[in-house]
Amino acid sequence: xxxxxxxxxxxxxxxxxxxxxxxxxxxxxxxxxxxxxxxxxxxxxxxxxxxxxxxxxxxxxxxxxxxxxxxxxxxxxxxxxxxxxxxxxxxxxxxxxxxxxxxxxxxxxxxxxxxxxxxxxxxxxxxxxxxxxxxxxxxxxxxxxxxxxxxxxxxxxxxxxxxxxxxxxxxxxxxxxxxxxxxxxxxxxxxxxxxxxxxxxxxxxxxxxxxxxxxxxxxxxxxxxxxxxxxxxxxxxxxxxxxxxxxxxxxxxxxxxxxxxxxxxxxxxxxxxxxxxxxxxxxxxxxxxxxxxxxxxxxxxxxxxxxxxxxxxxxxxxxxxxxxxxxxxxxxxxxxxxxxxxxxxxxxxxxxxxxxxxxxxxxxxxxxxxxxxxxxxxxxxxxxxxxxxxxxxxxxxxxxxxxxx
Length: 405
Fold this sequence. Notes:
Layout: E1 2-8, E2 15-19, E3 23-27, H1 34-48, H2 53-58, H3 69-72, E4 80-88, E5 94-104, E6 110-121, E7 129-134, E8 143-149, E9 156-162, H4 178-192, E10 194-197, H5 201-204, E11 208-209, H6 221-226, H7 230-244, E12 252-260, E13 266-274, E14 280-284, H8 290-304, E15 310-313, H9 325-339, E16 342-346, H10 350-356, E17 364-369, E18 376-380, H11 387-393, H12 396-401
Parallel strand pairs: 3-16, 3-17, 10-15, 15-16
Antiparallel strand pairs: 1-2, 1-4, 4-5, 5-6, 6-7, 7-8, 8-9, 11-13, 12-13, 13-14, 17-18
Helix pairs in contact: 1-4, 7-8, 8-9, 9-10
Protein backbone atom coordinates (compact mmCIF):
# COMPACT_ATOMS: atom_id res chain seq x y z
CA UNK A 1 0.00 0.00 0.00
CA UNK A 2 1.04 3.63 -0.52
CA UNK A 3 1.61 5.01 2.98
CA UNK A 4 2.74 8.57 2.37
CA UNK A 5 2.92 11.25 -0.32
CA UNK A 6 5.54 14.01 -0.06
CA UNK A 7 5.25 17.07 -2.31
CA UNK A 8 8.04 19.63 -2.80
CA UNK A 9 7.41 22.63 -5.08
CA UNK A 10 4.55 20.74 -6.69
CA UNK A 11 2.02 23.28 -7.97
CA UNK A 12 0.84 25.28 -4.92
CA UNK A 13 2.74 23.14 -2.37
CA UNK A 14 6.06 24.17 -0.90
CA UNK A 15 6.88 21.13 1.25
CA UNK A 16 4.06 18.96 2.62
CA UNK A 17 3.29 15.34 3.44
CA UNK A 18 0.02 13.45 3.19
CA UNK A 19 -0.34 10.36 5.36
CA UNK A 20 -2.53 7.74 3.70
CA UNK A 21 -4.75 5.44 5.77
CA UNK A 22 -7.26 2.80 4.68
CA UNK A 23 -9.82 5.62 4.56
CA UNK A 24 -8.54 9.21 4.23
CA UNK A 25 -10.56 12.42 3.92
CA UNK A 26 -9.26 15.72 2.57
CA UNK A 27 -11.08 18.91 3.51
CA UNK A 28 -10.37 22.57 2.83
CA UNK A 29 -11.85 25.64 1.18
CA UNK A 30 -11.90 26.15 -2.58
CA UNK A 31 -8.45 26.60 -4.17
CA UNK A 32 -6.72 25.35 -1.02
CA UNK A 33 -4.83 22.69 -3.00
CA UNK A 34 -6.90 19.50 -2.71
CA UNK A 35 -7.06 19.00 -6.49
CA UNK A 36 -3.31 19.56 -6.75
CA UNK A 37 -2.81 16.49 -4.55
CA UNK A 38 -4.99 14.46 -6.91
CA UNK A 39 -2.93 15.73 -9.85
CA UNK A 40 0.21 14.36 -8.17
CA UNK A 41 -1.38 10.92 -7.98
CA UNK A 42 -2.45 11.22 -11.63
CA UNK A 43 1.13 12.05 -12.64
CA UNK A 44 2.55 9.08 -10.71
CA UNK A 45 0.01 6.71 -12.26
CA UNK A 46 0.82 7.90 -15.76
CA UNK A 47 4.62 7.63 -15.54
CA UNK A 48 4.32 4.20 -13.90
CA UNK A 49 2.09 3.12 -16.79
CA UNK A 50 4.78 4.02 -19.33
CA UNK A 51 3.73 7.53 -20.36
CA UNK A 52 6.46 10.01 -21.23
CA UNK A 53 7.02 12.55 -18.48
CA UNK A 54 6.12 15.38 -20.84
CA UNK A 55 2.87 13.62 -21.80
CA UNK A 56 2.02 12.84 -18.18
CA UNK A 57 1.96 16.57 -17.47
CA UNK A 58 0.95 18.34 -20.69
CA UNK A 59 -1.10 15.53 -22.28
CA UNK A 60 -1.45 14.50 -25.91
CA UNK A 61 -4.18 13.38 -28.32
CA UNK A 62 -5.20 10.55 -25.96
CA UNK A 63 -4.32 12.01 -22.56
CA UNK A 64 -5.72 15.13 -20.93
CA UNK A 65 -3.16 17.47 -19.35
CA UNK A 66 -3.14 17.73 -15.60
CA UNK A 67 -4.75 20.95 -14.41
CA UNK A 68 -2.51 23.86 -15.42
CA UNK A 69 -0.36 21.63 -17.62
CA UNK A 70 3.26 22.54 -18.23
CA UNK A 71 2.72 26.10 -16.99
CA UNK A 72 1.72 25.26 -13.41
CA UNK A 73 3.13 21.87 -12.37
CA UNK A 74 6.06 23.68 -10.72
CA UNK A 75 5.48 26.11 -7.85
CA UNK A 76 5.76 29.73 -8.96
CA UNK A 77 9.35 30.94 -8.80
CA UNK A 78 10.86 27.43 -8.81
CA UNK A 79 12.44 25.48 -11.67
CA UNK A 80 11.59 21.92 -10.63
CA UNK A 81 9.20 19.95 -8.46
CA UNK A 82 9.47 16.56 -6.79
CA UNK A 83 7.06 13.89 -5.62
CA UNK A 84 8.00 11.14 -3.20
CA UNK A 85 5.94 8.14 -2.11
CA UNK A 86 6.53 5.63 0.65
CA UNK A 87 5.23 2.18 -0.20
CA UNK A 88 4.79 -0.74 2.19
CA UNK A 89 6.61 -3.87 1.04
CA UNK A 90 4.03 -6.37 2.27
CA UNK A 91 5.15 -7.90 5.59
CA UNK A 92 8.88 -8.01 4.87
CA UNK A 93 9.83 -5.53 7.58
CA UNK A 94 10.74 -2.65 5.30
CA UNK A 95 9.26 0.00 3.01
CA UNK A 96 10.31 1.37 -0.36
CA UNK A 97 10.79 5.10 -0.82
CA UNK A 98 10.49 6.30 -4.41
CA UNK A 99 11.06 9.90 -5.50
CA UNK A 100 11.06 11.68 -8.83
CA UNK A 101 12.04 15.26 -9.64
CA UNK A 102 11.00 16.93 -12.89
CA UNK A 103 12.38 20.24 -14.08
CA UNK A 104 10.84 22.75 -16.45
CA UNK A 105 13.14 23.18 -19.45
CA UNK A 106 11.19 26.01 -21.10
CA UNK A 107 7.61 27.17 -21.56
CA UNK A 108 6.70 24.09 -23.57
CA UNK A 109 8.80 21.24 -22.21
CA UNK A 110 9.98 19.44 -19.10
CA UNK A 111 12.25 16.48 -18.36
CA UNK A 112 13.45 14.13 -15.67
CA UNK A 113 15.91 15.80 -13.31
CA UNK A 114 16.51 13.05 -10.76
CA UNK A 115 14.96 9.81 -9.53
CA UNK A 116 15.71 7.40 -6.67
CA UNK A 117 14.43 4.17 -5.17
CA UNK A 118 15.52 3.15 -1.68
CA UNK A 119 14.85 0.42 0.85
CA UNK A 120 13.82 1.96 4.16
CA UNK A 121 14.13 -0.18 7.28
CA UNK A 122 11.12 -0.63 9.56
CA UNK A 123 13.24 -2.53 12.08
CA UNK A 124 16.88 -3.17 12.96
CA UNK A 125 16.96 -6.25 10.71
CA UNK A 126 17.47 -4.31 7.48
CA UNK A 127 19.88 -1.54 6.59
CA UNK A 128 18.57 1.47 4.67
CA UNK A 129 20.12 1.63 1.23
CA UNK A 130 19.54 3.19 -2.17
CA UNK A 131 18.77 0.69 -4.92
CA UNK A 132 19.19 3.23 -7.70
CA UNK A 133 19.70 6.95 -8.06
CA UNK A 134 20.68 9.50 -10.69
CA UNK A 135 23.54 11.85 -11.31
CA UNK A 136 23.34 15.31 -12.88
CA UNK A 137 26.49 15.40 -15.01
CA UNK A 138 24.52 15.50 -18.26
CA UNK A 139 21.50 17.56 -17.27
CA UNK A 140 19.68 18.75 -20.36
CA UNK A 141 20.86 15.86 -22.56
CA UNK A 142 18.63 13.06 -23.90
CA UNK A 143 20.09 10.61 -21.34
CA UNK A 144 20.42 10.60 -17.58
CA UNK A 145 23.20 8.68 -15.79
CA UNK A 146 21.71 6.19 -13.33
CA UNK A 147 23.63 4.34 -10.62
CA UNK A 148 22.43 0.91 -9.51
CA UNK A 149 23.30 -0.92 -6.29
CA UNK A 150 25.35 -4.06 -7.05
CA UNK A 151 25.31 -5.70 -3.61
CA UNK A 152 29.10 -5.66 -3.32
CA UNK A 153 29.98 -3.37 -0.43
CA UNK A 154 27.91 -0.57 -1.83
CA UNK A 155 29.57 -0.67 -5.23
CA UNK A 156 27.49 0.97 -7.95
CA UNK A 157 27.10 0.42 -11.66
CA UNK A 158 26.26 3.24 -14.07
CA UNK A 159 23.71 2.88 -16.87
CA UNK A 160 22.60 5.79 -19.06
CA UNK A 161 18.82 5.88 -19.52
CA UNK A 162 16.24 7.76 -21.54
CA UNK A 163 15.46 11.04 -19.78
CA UNK A 164 11.99 11.30 -21.38
CA UNK A 165 10.63 8.41 -19.29
CA UNK A 166 10.73 7.57 -15.60
CA UNK A 167 13.64 5.31 -14.75
CA UNK A 168 11.48 2.93 -12.75
CA UNK A 169 9.41 2.17 -15.87
CA UNK A 170 12.60 1.15 -17.75
CA UNK A 171 13.99 -1.28 -15.13
CA UNK A 172 12.41 -4.45 -16.50
CA UNK A 173 14.53 -4.16 -19.66
CA UNK A 174 17.83 -3.79 -17.79
CA UNK A 175 20.41 -6.29 -16.56
CA UNK A 176 20.33 -5.37 -12.87
CA UNK A 177 19.94 -7.24 -9.57
CA UNK A 178 16.74 -9.22 -9.07
CA UNK A 179 16.22 -7.28 -5.83
CA UNK A 180 16.06 -4.02 -7.80
CA UNK A 181 13.69 -5.49 -10.38
CA UNK A 182 11.43 -6.90 -7.67
CA UNK A 183 11.40 -3.62 -5.73
CA UNK A 184 10.67 -1.61 -8.88
CA UNK A 185 7.90 -3.99 -9.90
CA UNK A 186 6.35 -3.70 -6.44
CA UNK A 187 6.35 0.11 -6.49
CA UNK A 188 5.15 0.20 -10.10
CA UNK A 189 2.27 -2.10 -9.20
CA UNK A 190 1.02 0.23 -6.48
CA UNK A 191 1.37 3.33 -8.68
CA UNK A 192 -0.32 1.65 -11.65
CA UNK A 193 -3.22 0.68 -9.38
CA UNK A 194 -4.07 4.28 -8.50
CA UNK A 195 -7.56 5.01 -9.80
CA UNK A 196 -9.09 8.50 -9.65
CA UNK A 197 -12.87 8.39 -9.94
CA UNK A 198 -14.97 11.43 -10.78
CA UNK A 199 -18.37 10.11 -11.89
CA UNK A 200 -20.29 12.32 -14.33
CA UNK A 201 -23.96 11.24 -14.28
CA UNK A 202 -24.78 12.71 -17.70
CA UNK A 203 -22.08 10.50 -19.23
CA UNK A 204 -23.46 7.41 -17.49
CA UNK A 205 -26.94 7.61 -18.97
CA UNK A 206 -26.20 6.39 -22.48
CA UNK A 207 -25.87 2.90 -23.93
CA UNK A 208 -22.24 1.82 -23.78
CA UNK A 209 -20.03 -0.76 -25.46
CA UNK A 210 -18.87 -3.79 -23.48
CA UNK A 211 -15.50 -3.01 -21.94
CA UNK A 212 -13.00 -4.32 -19.40
CA UNK A 213 -11.98 -1.24 -17.41
CA UNK A 214 -14.14 1.37 -15.69
CA UNK A 215 -13.59 4.86 -17.11
CA UNK A 216 -12.61 7.65 -14.66
CA UNK A 217 -15.98 9.34 -15.26
CA UNK A 218 -17.80 5.97 -14.98
CA UNK A 219 -19.38 6.61 -18.39
CA UNK A 220 -19.01 2.94 -19.36
CA UNK A 221 -20.30 1.44 -16.10
CA UNK A 222 -23.02 -0.60 -17.85
CA UNK A 223 -20.57 -1.98 -20.43
CA UNK A 224 -18.06 -3.01 -17.75
CA UNK A 225 -20.68 -4.82 -15.67
CA UNK A 226 -22.36 -6.52 -18.64
CA UNK A 227 -19.02 -7.94 -19.79
CA UNK A 228 -18.90 -10.30 -16.78
CA UNK A 229 -20.13 -13.90 -17.10
CA UNK A 230 -23.78 -14.34 -16.05
CA UNK A 231 -23.10 -15.95 -12.65
CA UNK A 232 -20.56 -13.30 -11.66
CA UNK A 233 -22.87 -10.55 -12.91
CA UNK A 234 -25.71 -11.86 -10.71
CA UNK A 235 -23.46 -11.59 -7.66
CA UNK A 236 -22.40 -8.05 -8.57
CA UNK A 237 -26.02 -6.99 -9.19
CA UNK A 238 -27.00 -8.38 -5.78
CA UNK A 239 -24.23 -6.41 -4.06
CA UNK A 240 -25.08 -3.21 -5.93
CA UNK A 241 -28.73 -3.64 -4.91
CA UNK A 242 -27.75 -4.21 -1.28
CA UNK A 243 -25.72 -1.02 -1.02
CA UNK A 244 -27.91 1.31 -3.09
CA UNK A 245 -31.23 0.16 -1.56
CA UNK A 246 -31.22 2.63 1.38
CA UNK A 247 -30.25 5.57 -0.83
CA UNK A 248 -33.41 6.84 -2.58
CA UNK A 249 -36.77 7.62 -1.03
CA UNK A 250 -38.38 4.85 -3.07
CA UNK A 251 -37.53 1.25 -2.26
CA UNK A 252 -35.14 -0.23 -4.83
CA UNK A 253 -35.92 -3.86 -5.58
CA UNK A 254 -33.08 -4.58 -7.97
CA UNK A 255 -30.17 -3.04 -9.84
CA UNK A 256 -29.41 -4.85 -13.09
CA UNK A 257 -27.52 -4.61 -16.36
CA UNK A 258 -28.54 -6.02 -19.73
CA UNK A 259 -26.80 -6.47 -23.05
CA UNK A 260 -28.73 -4.80 -25.86
CA UNK A 261 -28.50 -4.30 -29.60
CA UNK A 262 -28.53 -6.68 -32.52
CA UNK A 263 -25.14 -8.17 -31.61
CA UNK A 264 -25.51 -7.67 -27.82
CA UNK A 265 -22.34 -5.57 -27.82
CA UNK A 266 -23.91 -2.64 -25.94
CA UNK A 267 -25.33 -2.42 -22.42
CA UNK A 268 -27.70 -0.38 -20.26
CA UNK A 269 -28.07 0.01 -16.50
CA UNK A 270 -31.53 -0.57 -14.99
CA UNK A 271 -33.16 -0.02 -11.62
CA UNK A 272 -36.44 -1.56 -10.43
CA UNK A 273 -38.29 0.59 -7.87
CA UNK A 274 -41.48 -0.01 -5.87
CA UNK A 275 -44.28 2.58 -5.91
CA UNK A 276 -46.66 3.55 -3.04
CA UNK A 277 -49.41 1.31 -4.49
CA UNK A 278 -47.03 -1.70 -4.19
CA UNK A 279 -46.51 -1.88 -7.94
CA UNK A 280 -43.03 -1.86 -9.47
CA UNK A 281 -41.51 0.32 -12.16
CA UNK A 282 -38.27 -0.24 -14.04
CA UNK A 283 -36.20 2.72 -15.17
CA UNK A 284 -32.95 2.79 -17.07
CA UNK A 285 -29.97 5.04 -16.37
CA UNK A 286 -31.58 7.87 -18.33
CA UNK A 287 -34.24 8.17 -15.64
CA UNK A 288 -32.01 7.77 -12.56
CA UNK A 289 -31.01 10.67 -10.34
CA UNK A 290 -27.48 12.10 -10.34
CA UNK A 291 -26.96 11.00 -6.75
CA UNK A 292 -28.00 7.41 -7.45
CA UNK A 293 -25.72 7.15 -10.48
CA UNK A 294 -22.73 8.59 -8.63
CA UNK A 295 -23.32 6.25 -5.70
CA UNK A 296 -23.55 3.26 -8.06
CA UNK A 297 -20.26 4.31 -9.67
CA UNK A 298 -18.51 4.51 -6.29
CA UNK A 299 -19.80 1.11 -5.19
CA UNK A 300 -18.87 -0.42 -8.56
CA UNK A 301 -15.32 0.96 -8.34
CA UNK A 302 -14.94 -0.61 -4.90
CA UNK A 303 -16.46 -3.94 -5.91
CA UNK A 304 -14.29 -4.27 -9.01
CA UNK A 305 -11.11 -2.63 -7.72
CA UNK A 306 -7.91 -4.62 -7.27
CA UNK A 307 -6.74 -5.64 -3.82
CA UNK A 308 -4.14 -3.22 -2.38
CA UNK A 309 -5.09 -0.53 -4.90
CA UNK A 310 -5.76 3.13 -4.13
CA UNK A 311 -9.13 4.62 -5.07
CA UNK A 312 -9.37 8.41 -5.07
CA UNK A 313 -12.80 10.05 -5.27
CA UNK A 314 -13.17 13.79 -5.79
CA UNK A 315 -16.16 15.46 -4.12
CA UNK A 316 -17.45 12.08 -3.02
CA UNK A 317 -20.79 13.40 -1.74
CA UNK A 318 -21.61 15.49 -4.82
CA UNK A 319 -25.31 15.07 -5.67
CA UNK A 320 -26.03 13.15 -2.46
CA UNK A 321 -28.68 14.32 0.01
CA UNK A 322 -27.20 15.18 3.44
CA UNK A 323 -29.50 12.62 5.10
CA UNK A 324 -27.68 9.87 3.16
CA UNK A 325 -24.19 10.84 4.31
CA UNK A 326 -24.16 8.16 6.99
CA UNK A 327 -25.09 5.52 4.41
CA UNK A 328 -22.19 6.63 2.23
CA UNK A 329 -19.70 6.54 5.11
CA UNK A 330 -20.81 3.08 6.23
CA UNK A 331 -20.54 1.79 2.66
CA UNK A 332 -17.02 3.19 2.27
CA UNK A 333 -15.87 1.65 5.56
CA UNK A 334 -17.37 -1.75 4.86
CA UNK A 335 -16.35 -2.17 1.22
CA UNK A 336 -12.85 -0.68 1.50
CA UNK A 337 -12.06 -3.07 4.37
CA UNK A 338 -13.68 -6.05 2.64
CA UNK A 339 -11.89 -5.46 -0.67
CA UNK A 340 -8.61 -4.26 0.93
CA UNK A 341 -8.67 -1.03 -1.07
CA UNK A 342 -7.39 2.26 0.36
CA UNK A 343 -9.69 5.21 -0.34
CA UNK A 344 -8.94 8.94 -0.41
CA UNK A 345 -11.93 11.30 -0.64
CA UNK A 346 -12.26 15.06 -0.93
CA UNK A 347 -15.37 16.70 0.49
CA UNK A 348 -16.99 20.04 1.33
CA UNK A 349 -20.06 18.48 2.91
CA UNK A 350 -20.58 19.24 6.63
CA UNK A 351 -23.14 16.40 6.87
CA UNK A 352 -20.49 13.91 5.74
CA UNK A 353 -18.00 15.15 8.35
CA UNK A 354 -20.65 14.81 11.04
CA UNK A 355 -21.38 11.28 9.83
CA UNK A 356 -17.71 10.36 10.20
CA UNK A 357 -17.80 10.89 13.95
CA UNK A 358 -14.91 11.66 16.30
CA UNK A 359 -13.32 8.24 15.83
CA UNK A 360 -12.38 9.24 12.26
CA UNK A 361 -10.58 12.44 13.27
CA UNK A 362 -7.10 10.87 12.85
CA UNK A 363 -7.92 10.16 9.20
CA UNK A 364 -8.93 13.70 8.17
CA UNK A 365 -6.34 16.06 6.68
CA UNK A 366 -7.00 19.78 6.37
CA UNK A 367 -5.58 21.57 3.31
CA UNK A 368 -5.05 25.32 3.69
CA UNK A 369 -3.07 28.22 2.25
CA UNK A 370 -0.43 30.00 4.29
CA UNK A 371 -1.66 33.53 5.00
CA UNK A 372 1.74 35.07 4.22
CA UNK A 373 3.28 32.97 1.44
CA UNK A 374 0.12 31.53 -0.13
CA UNK A 375 1.67 28.04 -0.10
CA UNK A 376 -0.64 25.07 0.34
CA UNK A 377 -0.13 23.07 3.52
CA UNK A 378 -1.38 19.64 4.60
CA UNK A 379 -2.16 19.22 8.28
CA UNK A 380 -3.70 16.33 10.15
CA UNK A 381 -6.83 17.64 11.80
CA UNK A 382 -5.98 15.91 15.07
CA UNK A 383 -2.70 17.87 15.24
CA UNK A 384 -4.44 21.26 15.53
CA UNK A 385 -3.48 22.79 18.87
CA UNK A 386 -6.99 24.01 19.66
CA UNK A 387 -8.94 21.05 18.23
CA UNK A 388 -10.34 19.84 21.57
CA UNK A 389 -11.57 23.33 22.40
CA UNK A 390 -13.18 23.66 18.97
CA UNK A 391 -14.83 20.24 19.17
CA UNK A 392 -16.29 21.14 22.55
CA UNK A 393 -17.93 24.21 21.03
CA UNK A 394 -19.58 22.64 17.95
CA UNK A 395 -19.73 19.60 15.67
CA UNK A 396 -17.15 18.95 12.96
CA UNK A 397 -19.40 19.91 10.05
CA UNK A 398 -20.37 23.28 11.50
CA UNK A 399 -16.75 24.02 12.34
CA UNK A 400 -15.83 23.48 8.70
CA UNK A 401 -18.68 25.75 7.56
CA UNK A 402 -17.35 28.47 9.90
CA UNK A 403 -13.81 27.85 8.58
CA UNK A 404 -12.78 27.43 12.21
CA UNK A 405 -9.75 25.37 11.30
